[in-house]
Amino acid sequence: MKKVLIIMGIILVLIVGGGYAAYNYFIGYASDMMVEMVAEELAINEAEYNRWLEAPGVQEMLEQMEVDEDTELIFPTKEDATRAIIREYPMGEITDVITKAQQGQMTIEQIEEKLSEKFTEEEIEALMILAIREMQGE
Fold first, then answer.
1. pLDDT over threshold 60, residue 67
2. Which of 57, 63, 98, 102 has the fewest CB neighbours in a 10 Å radius?
3. C-alpha distances out from residue 28 to 59, 113, 129, Å
4. In which region does residue 86 sit, left (phi positive, over 0), alpha (psi from -120 to 50) or beta (all else)?
5. How far from chain centre, in Å, is Cα 56?
6. What is the pTM of this model?
7. How distant is the alpha carbon of residue 107 from its chain centre?
């Protein structure tokens, strides 16, 4: 009986450990896919990307934020940021926002307003800084 419990305990630990590893792998994979998808879209629509960068709201935001490599952020990596977004928003809503933004149906201000429903100003700034770092290829 004791051996059975020990074997069941070991199996349980392996299942939990495997689930944790799979979850972390999925988050990293999802982060990379999101970044690649946005990067491909920006590469295809370079004119749209430049228009977006020249938008008044984006220019103000870029000027206000100090995008420094040494800046301590709430979300130190894109994976941490992805986890936070996935925790707060269903995947369907995330893809809907991405699609609307790509089609020009959603402005930066609307995206920031959507984020402010569930994130603090400091968290939104960290997300924006991570996005800018990714766009700059850091």
1. no
2. 63
3. 30, 26, 19
4. alpha
5. 23
6. 0.52
7. 18
Q: Which of 85, 101, 95, 96 is nearest to 49 (CA)?
A: 101
pLDDT-derived band of residue 138, with 50, 70 and 90 as boundaries?
very low
CB 89 within 8 A of CB 118: yes
SS3 20: helix
Gap between the Cα atoms of 96 and 79, Å rounded: 20
CA gap 101, 104 in Å, rounded: 5
Tokens of 30: 């999802």
CB crowding 123-134: b at 16 or more within 10 Å, else e: bbbbbbbbeebb
Dist. CA 11–CA 7, nearest whole Å: 6
What is the spatial distance between Cα 105 and Cα 98, in angstroms, rounded to a whole number? Answer: 10
Amino acid at 129: I
